[in-house]
Design brief:
- It comes from Anaerobium acetethylicum.
- Pfam families: Lact_bio_phlase (PF09508), LBP_C (PF17386), LBP_M (PF17385).
- One of its GO terms (molecular function) is 1,4-alpha-oligoglucan phosphorylase activity.
- This is 1,3-beta-galactosyl-N-acetylhexosamine phosphorylase.
- 26% of the residues lie in helices and 25% in strands.
- The protein is of the alpha/beta class.
- It has three domains: 281 residues, Alpha-Beta Barrel (TIM Barrel), CATH 3.20.20.80; 216 residues, Class I glutamine amidotransferase (GATase) domain (Rossmann fold), CATH 3.40.50; 54 residues, Sandwich (Immunoglobulin-like).
- The strands form nine sheets. The chain has an eight-stranded parallel β-barrel, surrounded by four helices. It has a seven-stranded mixed beta sheet with strand order 21-20-22-23-30-29-28, sandwiched between helices.
- Helix 5 runs parallel beside helix 8.
Length: 718
């Protein structure tokens, strides 16, 4: 275990002074923090190490919000769809929404900022064809019989969604609902800056101001029963107001429409292929948010304190892989680590001095309860995070929530000790050196590119969904592989593929932003990729890559992939697919392959394919050659240690560099190896909760045979 301490932040609370001091010494933590619903005890402010204070720019000041109701935050929402059965229709826009969270905005002119849509025709209903009944809060429409209508409208956010979430999750009862206020608004902007200055003066012993986050909450909207109605961690629906939108119109040069935000009711889910107008709005918000956030960071710096941003809550507009993030001047970013993907989402951030991850589980009563398994969650979380840390290390780790819950759970603190010890050991052993990677890059191709790096195919932050796990598994595998990964968009293909990229992956469902939808109708895109593979590049497709029905094909790169999907249109054409599982990709794979949800009715075609796995007469894993290049098709690929090995082999095969894969190699698929050549060390990790035997090969020669304990990490001198 490591001989060094530090690199650890612990949460505390007003009634946990002695226990905090005990754990701080036991775990050798060098920072303490508060969190929502807790208070930092005065006695702990004298401790050695840093003191983090959570700072809310948009809430915890109901007095100001109540005095300035016009500057409360707002959100664009869309009413339920209602079918007219006569020539007059009344719609109650707030039906289905929680009225303690949202309040319809009748202060700003609805005819200017709302939009009534005929969803049957897709046309805007002219403003002279509808009125607002302010008394009943209904919209009265001159309708066409049996057409369907919606109202897109502005609502004030009168209960901060994160506070509401914490309130419900932790069963708070006597805590006042926290109103939100919009820091972008003129009066509130001045007030918040002056308030921050006063706070810095009144808290001289706080070293790190943790902004949670800055101004705009991601889309988190509740229904009438206080259940989550819309949750879009990437959503901009709650970053609007007439004040902001008027500025946008001047910047963009065209009139803003509510439809740019409500998007037919999809609210610009990250799965939607983004419209030009929505991309424009994202960029405008990033520009303006980064400017104002810098003002607050500069205030913090003027008092000799560090400024840290939480990658969550009100993070909209501070996209860390956007063009303007570095302008904010932050010292650090901290975020929740749910797996290897979300760790890389934090650790890959540039433009800050250090990164910090909050490991799961949070010390909340939904986990630390009868039937809960916080130790198991901590172990699973750490095994995924550890893989990614070896490739792209965080500088610090920590925990969040209520320390009293963690200390009462038998064995949990022992598990934390193991995690913290291994994290420090990684830093001690590698001493700032970089892990060996393949001599080429892998590109993930989708509509978002680097802006949403490590965010591909997620509904929201690290939440499991049946429809996505087969695709998130691809980037989860990659997060801990010895591979440099780039996220590229279709414009980068059109303008010329980076010559360092040897393999391109396109993974997801048809019609989504992840596969590209109508981008595949662009002859430039398909011809550039054909040229790329023909000249020796590799292409890996998962699910429905390059999918859009066009000119007798569903997969527009079916010639490269050697497969297409049967939609019923070509059932008259017989298919003669034969299984041949002998291949480099499957050489050390012993168990059945998990394709997750997979895709049905995939059939091989052409002259150069090899079917490695089938489900009855249809294919699930196929390789193909195309000129000098190669492709691999997977019906789906959830995360598992075995699937990591399969994908690793597929990447090296597609790149035509099979021999390079075994420069550093372990035989057991439940184990992985990382080489730190400049440090003269190799690390082998057991990614399972069972003992494992594995052989370590270096440059083709057996270095050592290892008997590994469950979850063990073993360092070997090169």
């Amino acid at each position: 275990m490591s001989k060094i301490g530090g690199r650890l932040t612990l949460p505390t609370d007003i009634d946990m002074i002695d226990e905090t001091l005990r754990l701080k010494e036991l775990l050798d933590a060098d920072a303490l923090r508060d969190c929502d619903g807790t208070n930092m005890p005065e006695e702990l402010l004298e401790c050695d190490g840093k003191i983090y204070a959570t700072y809310y720019t948009t809430r915890k000041d109901n007095e100001w919000a109540e005095k300035n109701p016009e500057e409360i935050q707002q959100e664009y929402v869309m009413s339920e769809r209602v079918t007219a059965k006569d020539t007059a229709l009344r719609i109650k826009p707030m039906k289905g929404f929680y009225t303690e969270q949202l309040k319809i905005n009748l202060l700003d002119d609805p005819k200017r900022w709302w939009e009534v849509m005929d969803r049957t025709t897709g046309e805007i209903v002219p403003t002279d064809k509808w009125e607002v009944d302010a008394e009943t809060e209904e919209v009265v429409i001159q309708s066409v019989k049996y057409h369907e209508y919606t109202v897109s409208f502005l609502a004030f956010i009168i209960w901060d969604p994160v506070h509401m979430y914490n309130f419900i999750t932790n069963d708070w009862t006597d805590v006042p609902h926290q109103l939100t206020f919009d820091v972008r608004q003129p009066k509130t902007q001045v007030y918040v800056k002056e308030k921050l200055k006063r706070w810095c003066e009144e808290n001289p012993k706080v070293n790190v101001v943790r902004f949670t986050t800055f101004f705009h909450q991601f889309t988190l909207t509740f229904d009438e029963q206080k259940r989550e109605k819309y949750v879009e961690w990437f959503g901009y629906s709650a970053s609007v107001s007439p004040y902001i939108l008027e500025q946008f119109e001047k910047w963009a040069g065209y009139k803003f429409r509510p439809e740019f935000i409500v998007d037919q009711g999809y609210h610009n889910s990250i799965f939607r292929v983004p419209s030009k107008e929505f991309r424009d709005f994202i960029e405008f918000q990033q520009i303006e948010v980064s400017k104002l956030a810098k003002d607050l960071v500069d205030i913090v710096h003027s008092y000799g304190k560090e400024a840290m941003m939480f990658l969550g809550d009100h993070w909209i507009g501070t996209e860390p892989f956007g063009k303007y993030f570095a302008n904010i001047g932050l010292d650090a970013v901290v975020g929740s680590v749910g797996d290897g993907v979300t760790l890389r989402m934090i650790s890959d951030i540039k433009g800050v001095k250090y990164t910090e991850g909050r490991l799961l589980p949070y010390f909340f009563p939904d986990v630390f309860t009868e039937g809960g398994d916080p130790i198991g969650e901590a172990q699973d979380n750490w095994m995924k995070a550890r893989r990614a840390i070896l490739r792209s290390p965080l500088d610090r780790i920590g925990y969040g929530g209520y320390l009293s819950l963690a200390t009462k759970w038998p064995g949990f603190i022992d598990q934390i000790q193991k995690v913290v010890g291994e994290f420090r050991q990684i830093h001690e052993e590698v001493n700032g050196t970089k892990c060996h990677t393949a001599p080429f890059k892998v590109g993930i191709l989708n509509c978002w590119g680097n802006l949403r790096r490590w965010m591909a195919n997620q509904v929201h932050h690290a939440i499991w969904h049946r429809e996505i796990y087969s695709y998130v598994g691809v980037i989860e595998c990659l997060s801990g592989m010895p591979i440099d990964v780039e996220f590229i968009d279709f414009d980068e293909v059109r303008n010329g593929i980076d010559p360092d990229i040897k393999v391109i992956i396109n993974a997801g469902d048809a019609m989504t932003s992840w596969t590209g939808h109508e981008n595949w109708l662009d002859e430039t895109v398909v011809t550039k990729l054909r040229e790329f593979v023909d000249n020796g590049g590799g292409f890996i497709g998962v699910g429905e890559p390059s999918a859009i029905q066009h000119q007798g094909k569903f997969f527009q790169l079916s010639d490269i992939l050697g497969v297409d999907r049967e939609l019923g249109f070509s059932l008259i054409t017989d298919k003669y697919n034969t299984l041949d599982p002998e291949h480099f990709i499957l050489e050390d794979i012993e168990n059945e392959i998990d394709f997750g949800e997979g895709k049905s009715s995939i059939y091989a075609q052409g002259e150069n394919y090899q079917v490695l796995n089938m489900d009855q007469k249809y294919c699930r894993l196929v390789t193909n050659t195309y000129g000098k290049g190669r492709s691999v098709y997977f019906a789906g690929l959830p995360y598992s240690p075995q699937n990591c090995r399969i994908l690793l082999r597929a990447i090296y095969y597609a790149a035509g560099m099979e021999d390079e894969m075994k420069k550093y190699y372990v035989t057991n698929v439940d184990t992985e190896v990382g080489a730190f050549e400049d440090a003269g060390k190799v690390v082998v990790i057991n990614n399972s909760k069972d003992p494992q035997k594995t052989d370590l090969y270096i440059k083709g020669e057996l270095k050592v045979s290892l008997d590994m304990e469950p979850m063990e990490m073993r360092w070997v001198e090169i």
